[in-house]
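ENCODED BACKBONE
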Amino acid sequence: TGLGLAISHSLVSMMGGKIGVESVKGKGSTFWFTVEVTALAAAPRAETRSTHHPLPVDSISRTLAQIVGMRVLVVEDNEINQQVAQEILGHAGVVAEIAGNGQVA
C-alpha cells in the first residue's frame, strides 16, 4: 500500500534524518535512511522472573479467525499511530474506523 514508506518517512524526518530509494530496473529497489544518534551506556540488567506466558500458536490462530471482518473504532490523536494501527488491523482482516479524538468518536 505504500503506507509503511510514508510512516518511515515521517519517523525519519522527525529524527532529522534522510530517507531514500535506489532502484535498478529488473533488479529491484533498496530503501535506506540515515539518522544521527548518540550512543548511551548500557543499562545494568535487572534480574527478574518473567510472568509472561506466550499464547500457543493454535490459540493465536483461533483468535485471529474470530476477528476477521470485525469493525473497530480506533481513537488516536497521533496521525502516525493512526496509520500504524490501521495497517496492523487491516492485515488481521479488521476494518478500522479512525477518529482523531474522543469528541469526533
Remarks:
- Residues 51 and 85 are 27 Å apart (CA to CA).
- The first helix runs from residue 3 to 14.
- The beta strands are 18-24, 28-34, 71-75, 95-99.
- Residues 63-105 form one domain.
